[in-house]
Amino acid sequence: MTTLSFSLAPESLFQLHDALTCLAKFHDTVAIEAEYDILRLSVLNPTKTAYTAFVFEADTFFESYSFALPRNGTSSRDARPDRFCCQLYIKALLSVFKGRTKDKDTAVERCDVELREDLDQTECRFVIRMICGLGVIKSYKLTYEAANVNHAVFDRTKTTNQWSIDPKFLREITDHFSPSAEQLDISSEGGKAIFTSFTTKITDGKEILKKPVHTSVAIDKRDFEYFLVEDSLHVAIALKDFKAVIAHAESANTMITARYTRPNRPMQLAYDFGGIKTEFTLMTRGASDDEVPQSSRAPELSARQTPAPVTVRQASTSNSRNMPPPPPRARSIRPLTGTPSASARGTETEPSAETQRPPASIDFDSLFVPADDDRQWDVPNEDEETEDRLGWDATGDHETFNASLGRLRDTESSMPPQDTSHEDDMGIPPTQRISQVSQLPAPQQ
Amino acid sequence: MRFRTQLCNVTTFSKLIGSLSSLGKVCWMRLEDGIIRFTIIPDQGTQVWAQLPVDAIFEESTYILEANSGVINLEVPVGALHRALRSAVAATSTQLRLTKKGNVPLLALTIHASSWTTGSNALGIADADQAATDHATVSGPRERETVIAQEVPVKVLHELSVEGLHEPRCRDPDVHIILPSLFQLKSISERFTKLATDSKGAGTALSSVAPKLELSANMHGSLKLAIATDSLRISSVWTDLVNPALDPAQLSQTELEQLPSERMRAFRDDDEAGWAKVRIDGKDWGRVLSVGRLSPKVVACFIHETALVLYVYLPGNGDDSCLTYYINSYAA
C-alpha cells in the first residue's frame, strides 16, 4: 500500500494555488508524482508543445512530508519504481486550494493531505483537510486516475543561449502585444533584445484589414541580469505559454532564466524559489519571417501525427542512456477504448492490457482530438503496455464498462464506428471516472 | 506616396480613435495638407465625419505628405490602431508613417518609451536569499529605453473609390442646444434603456425591438430624455442649457430670421409645439456618447422626427477640430 501524506502551512498553500493557476493555463489535468524527497506537479499541453513542472521539495516546502511504497507492489516494467503517479483535474484541485481568503476568522491554519490508496479498497482518494480558525475543518475527497507520467527532458549542459531577467520587464513587453497575437519571436541585435509578436493566421489577400497587428518591442540588453545569446538568432514560442510563465514568475517575485539552443529545439524557462523548482519546456519554431511558407514550420502539427511528443523525443536523443525512450503521454490521442492501464483501481503498478495500434489509426484519431476531452483520460500509455495483453480478466466488469461506453457515445454522435477489436483492450476504469464527478468536491464538514 | 509624422498629442489621438472604434470596425482616414479627416460609415447606425487640423494631433513641422493628388486615403482598422496607440500614451516620442511590408501597406508606429529602474531595489525584496544574491550584480538606478514598433495593416484607397462618399446633408435644425455632461447623459441613457428592456422582458415581449430613447429639446434651454414602454414611462429634463447663436457671418439677417430654430424660439417655453424630438437606439447612442472621453463641447442639432446631428468640438482647438455625428431618428 502506498502511503503519502503531507502538511502545508498557509503560505505554502497559497503558493500551491498559484502553481495550480499557472498549470491550468496549459491543460486541464495535472499529473502528480510523489517521490521520497519531492512532490512534482506537471502538465503536458494537448498539442505536446509545452511541458510544465513544479517540483516541491519535501524538506523546505512542506511542514511535514512522508512517502512510502509497498515493497512488493511495483512491477519491473515501471521505469521508476520509486514513485507514485496519478492525475487529477486541475479545476477540482483549484476549488480546494483557493487563494487568499478575506475572512480572517476562519482562515486556513494548516492543510493536511493524505493519499488513501489501497488495492483492497474500492475507493482510492486524495483526502485533503483544511484546518481553519475557530475549529472549522473542511475535508475534501478527490478521486484521481492512474497515469504514467513522462517528463520532457531538457539537457541544460547543451544550452548555447541563455538569459535571465526580471519577469516584470517581460510583462511590460507582452502588454504591448495585441490580445490576438499567438506567437512570440525572440532575437537580439546589437545591444538590443527584440521580442516580436506575430500570428501565423493565413488570411485572404483581400482581407488586409483583418491581418494581425505586428508588434515588436526592443529592450536594452542591460535590462537583463545576463544575456548570452547568439546575435540575430530567432526562436519563436507560443505567446500564451510565455504569458502564463511570466505571470507566475512575477507573482513569485523571482528572476526567470531562459535556456535554448536553436529554433525547432525546446526552450526551457525556469526559476527556483522557496523550495519550489519550476521548469517550462516549450517547443520553439523558426523565425517569424513572412516569406517562409507557413505550413512548413509548425512543429506541433507534425507532433500530432507521430506517436511521440516532440519535446520529449527531441530531448531524449541526448539522454537515451539514462532514460527509457519516452513513450507518448497518457492522455494521448486515440479513439475510445476504455481505460486499460488504469485497470488496477487507480494505480499504475498493475498490468494493463493494450495493444499497440497501427500508426494509421493514430493519424486518423488526431482529427478527433478536440471533439472529445474525455478520451484523454482513457489510455495512459501505448508503448509500455504491449506485453500485457492478458493481464486481467474483463468479464466481471464488462457490463459496467459497456454502460459507461454507451453513455459516452451518446454525447459523441460524430464519433466514427469503433473498431471492435479494441474491446479486447478494455480495462476496468479506476474507482470512478473523473468525468462522473464533474461537480466540484464539496466540503464535508 | 509618402506619409510620415511625429505625434504630438498622443492622448487626444488615442481617445479620438478610441471613440471612433466604438462605432465601426474600419475608418476612412484622409490625409491632406493641413487637414486630417476620419470618417466612419457603418452599415447601420451613426455616421461620423471628423475633421482636424494637422497640428491637433501631429507635429506640423515633421508632417510629410507626398502624393500625386496631394491626398492620401486610407482604410484603417480603428480597433487595431487604437490598441497600438495605447503603447504610445506614456512614450517620449512617437512616429507614425506609411510603409509597406511585402504587398501589405502598413501604418507603422515607432514608439520610444523610457522608464526609470532603481536597479537592485526594483523588486523590493530582501527576504529571499536567492533573489538577493541575484540582484547583487544588477547595476544601480538608470534609465531604461524601450523601442516599440506597432505595424497596423491598412488599405490604400484610390481617389475614385472615395469619390462617391459625401457628408450627409440635412435641412436646417429646428433646435440647437449645448448638451450637458456626456458622462451624466450616458449613464442616465443606459439606465433608462435597461429599465425599459427589463420591464419589456417581464411583460408580454410582443416585439423583439428594443424600446427607443426619445430625446427632445426646445430653444429655451431644455433637454428631455425619455423612454416609454407599455408598463413604464420615465423621463429626465435638463433646464438652463445654452442654445448657441449661429455664426452671423455666414447668414444674412433675413436668413437668420427665417431659420426654423427662430420659429421654434417664438413658442413659449411651456408650449409642447416648441420641442423638437428624435427617437434613437439606446445602444447606438451609448456608442456615440463614448466621445465624452475627449471632454468636448457638444452642440446637438435636432431636426424634428428626422435626425439628430451632433457637432463635437475638441477642447483647446477652437472650432477647427470638429467631429460631426449623424444620427437618424426612428419612426414612432
From TrEMBL, chain A:
Q: Where is the composition biased (Basic and acidic residues)?
A: 388-400
Residue span of region Disordered: 287-445
The regions listed as transmembrane in this protein's record are: none
Task: Specify residue ranges for compositional bias: Polar residues.
Answer: 338-355, 432-445
Q: Which InterPro entries match?
A: DNA_clamp_sf, Rad9, Rad9/Ddc1
Q: Which GO terms describe its cellular component?
A: checkpoint clamp complex
Keywords on record? DNA damage
Is Metal-binding set as a keyword in this record? no
SUPFAM superfamilies linked to this entry: DNA clamp
What Pfam families would the database entry show?
Rad9 (PF04139)
One record GO biological process: DNA repair
Q: Which family does it belong to?
A: Belongs to the rad9 family.
Q: What does this protein do?
A: Acts in DNA repair and mutagenesis. Involved in promoting resistance to ionizing radiation and UV light, as well as regulating cell cycle progression after irradiation.
Can you say what this protein is called? DNA repair protein rad9
State the organism named in the record: Aspergillus avenaceus
Lineage, opening ranks: Eukaryota, Fungi, Dikarya, Ascomycota, Pezizomycotina
UniProtKB/TrEMBL annotation, chain B:
Tell whether Transmembrane helix is among the UniProt keywords: no
Q: Which GO terms describe its biological process?
A: double-strand break repair via homologous recombination; meiotic DNA integrity checkpoint signaling; mitotic DNA replication checkpoint signaling; mitotic intra-S DNA damage checkpoint signaling; nucleotide-excision repair; telomere maintenance
Protein's recorded name: Checkpoint protein
Q: Where in the cell is it found?
A: Nucleus
Q: Which InterPro entries match?
A: HUS1 (IPR016580), HUS1/Mec3 (IPR007150)
| Family label | Belongs to the HUS1 family.
Keyword terms, alphabetized: Nucleus
Ranges that cross the membrane: none
**A Pfam family assignment:** Hus1
Listed GO CC annotations: checkpoint clamp complex; nucleolus; site of double-strand break
